[in-house]
Amino acid sequence: MADAAPPRNSSRTALGVAALRAVHQLLDGEPKILDDPIAARLLDADVLQQLRSNPARPHEPLTKGLRSHVVLRNRYAEERMAQAVQRGVRQCVLLGAGFDTFAYRQPDWARSLRIYEVDHQATQEDKRHRLQSAGIPIPANLEFVAIDFESASLRQGLQTSTLNFSQPVFFSCLGVLVYLTREAADAVFALVAAFPASSEIVFTFSTPQSSLSGNEAESQAALAGLVNSIGEPWQTYFDPQTLINDLHALGFSDISFLSSEAAEQTYFQRRSDGLQAPRRGGIGAAIVGAHPS
């Protein structure tokens, strides 16, 4: 009997992100910013055929910039996760996990982690269908947690899982905050801040268009218009300095943003394919400090 068709309301932007990671594996040169051999295996055959039959499109400026942002944010988050493991963190929550593939290609250092993939049930069902079709097993240290960020509290949703609230947690929140209401986005930071010291969140955010330069503003407007057209509109923007102040007030003691210049120097040097660090920033990390006694 054939497998049931995946849900129609699975996130299209999440699948688009998987396609960008697949393009990086298939068309970009070496070394890979993110080594992700799983992403292409989650895509439909016709999507892969379209990618291979039109190799010029992935090199258009908007697509290329978005792809470099996607692979960079995952690379950065996974490196920060490895550092968190070194300091004793043993729980990882991937918020809005979508078609993230970390758990299915996890390195040896991650085997000690309990990994929680958090997303809408429809997207999770679609992902599990694709994993099964590709013959990719679900690792023993992974747990799916179905939560609708807008209709249910993140805390309440996580309380249905085996997550230990008394132990530090590493949170990855990539490509999520911009789709939430401001209230829901603030609640994510507040929840992370309530976890024990040494907990961390790596996140992406978008700044108000009015604060961007001409080319950056045009690119962001084009991208926002695209996702709005498929029914997944951007809602929330953060001013970086205000965000820093708000995070400090919540109890985060170590807050940093990855600049385009630092990303270029660290990850994009000596490339032969012309892939550059994205001009847009919006990748941050914050570690929970010691709570007052």
Structure description:
This protein has 293 residues and is of the alpha/beta class. It has one domain (12-288): 3-Layer(aba) Sandwich (Rossmann fold), CATH 3.40.50.150. The protein is built from 9 helices and 7 strands. Strands 3-2-1-4-5-7-6 form a 7-stranded mixed sheet, sandwiched between helices. Mean pLDDT is 88; it is low at 1-8.
Give me some keywords for this one:
7-stranded mixed sheet, globular
Q: Uncertain regions: pLDDT < 50 for 5+ in a row?
A: 1-8
Q: How many distinct helices? A: 9
How many structural domains can be distinguished in the coordinates? 1
Distance between the termini: 59 Å
CATH architecture: 3-Layer(aba) Sandwich
Q: Could you tell me the mean pLDDT?
A: 88
Helices, strands, pairings?
Layout: H1 12-27, H2 45-53, H3 61-86, E1 91-95, E2 114-119, H4 121-134, E3 142-146, H5 154-159, E4 170-173, H6 182-193, E5 200-204, H7 214-229, H8 240-250, E6 252-257, H9 260-267, E7 283-288
Parallel strand pairs: 1-2, 1-4, 2-3, 4-5
Antiparallel strand pairs: 5-7, 6-7
